[in-house]
């Protein structure tokens, strides 16, 4: 499907380029290992203030990358905006536009007239930051399954080390949705003196067991694909596309709500009112949609990165990691102001999870605001409901610290 | 895990044997093809009245079989009661007990002191009734992908032909849950003069798009497994166990509710409070549970039967098939009394679907009763909430026609 070339609308950050930076020191990981070298892919939007006090770090979700805003300079111009399948649904994202382009730019939620916005590809990623597809210096081959198991805290430590190199000590805010929201919360816990404000959208302090289960299914689907080859598929000409496609389909359904699927597809058949009696072909529109989403995803994403990132977000559990099982204890040291946004129809990262965070912070006397937005699109809302999030975030950020 | 040998409790129908019957005529299918020969596996419980007017046909769900009640005479004694993963959850089912043993027997919901209960394995099945693993007389080899695509109506036509051979003209009732409920409703539409009462539990008149999507994912997972071999895996020593296991995991989660998973597993780790940092191993209890369910399922079920049965329940759409898009028109000829039971936490076959059937029947002036049971276990409730369904069903069946 050819699309018209994207044009830069008012409020765009313009043409941007993903850059790379090598960390000078190894990153110490939760699992006990050290990782070195670590390269970080990043983009920046806006200008750093002389006092370096206007930095907002945005953190992406499972399948995102550093290209959060603007039009990519890369000639491939591949969209990253369909990180949650939203690309074909809101009509806003075009080829080459960043995954949060609607939120980052002059006058937008993260206002580049005022803030210096930084976006990095997360540790373990496959879009420029060191991950399982990177070369292991010990062997000269891609890490594959030898890549260390990482956590959300490890992602945040990597971002911390990256900002150190840039000479940025404090963050005016750290923000993200989904797994990005987990990173934002982890920042507030790990580096309490260095974050002024947290914006955690469609996030949670710990994925519920059904979410753990969906992630386990997606990972098992990859690992049961013979083409995965124990994770050493690089250079073999085969990759576990079939299995990762299934995992992606599962993900898609969990990112949407049942009513959203009803509204978008109903039980409509593909180009016919008559059943064609086929087992192998996609007959319902929703079946065809899922296959299309799976096929386009596997072309741009690395299966091992999916495994490691999914594992990290499954492990994420603020109470267990930082509070001996108590969320209150885990959040006790937080000094940042916190904005939580949740969506009424999000059953993967439900409002109840954000409410638990809010109550814990409130009980500790911490400044916290929770906004539950009534919207029908499920978890995907965090990429779709930009217009309604924008005034909430702008107002929150503008408040005097 | 060894279990004590099952004992026959009071109310049991005793030791039973699955028998087989060959239909004398071909079955004409919705797809236009005729299927012959067709063998039907069945069990009966109770005694046929001299007037043959006390017959209840029970219809099983996706992964069930003819062994609905009592203790199987088959030496393998393999449980069929975990058709919806309920086996290990309610403690009632043991090795060799039928999948609806709690509902069929003397004094039970389907009271064998009064009724002659018949259970058949559905058309396309893999437990004795003709299906894709049966021998195609045209080739002398298993049908595999040459088996015709079947519908719920085809399943019901096969049951009708089977009952003809037994000399049974009328049904006092037809009953089933999930796909079994679809069959029960289809009976009332296809053979309105021959069914006195319908009991459709956790059923629907048409699966919603999210349910269509889950089924598509399960089927694609099987078909993407290279061991599926285009459906011709019989006799090759390989079967798409990996893919069907993933499909079964997806199914399991959809049969349960998020709160049920929370109550059963929480975020508990396997035998440890510490994360072990592993991608490949199951760390959370819910992960281990899913793998176990997948492994036990693939040992007893045929992947092609899964494909065909899943396709049939996806196609099922009373309004489209029988009403030109109108549910009212589809149900216009129904003469049976209808009992609908739904469960509050069932998000796969939600109460709203049963409500739509109830409203359509009521508007047509048909006798209908809907009971929505508040229960937390999701779709699985239909196999778990036997104690609460029993008085509802007994009262409904006892009512004068």
Automatic annotation (TrEMBL), chains A, B:
- Keyword annotations for this protein? Acyltransferase, Amino-acid biosynthesis, Cytoplasm, Methionine biosynthesis, Transferase
Question: Which residues of this protein are catalytic?
Answer: 178, 346, 379
Q: Does the keyword Manganese apply?
A: no
Q: Where in the cell is it found?
A: Cytoplasm
Can you name one GO molecular function term for this protein? homoserine O-acetyltransferase activity
Q: Which residues bind substrate?
A: 248, 380
Q: Which InterPro entries match?
A: AB_hydrolase_1 (IPR000073), AB_hydrolase_fold (IPR029058), HAT_MetX-like (IPR008220)
Its EC number is 2.3.1.31
- Asked if the Swiss-Prot or TrEMBL record annotates the protein with the keyword Acyltransferase, the reply is yes
What is the name attached to this protein's record?
A: Homoserine O-acetyltransferase
What gene name is listed for this protein? metXA
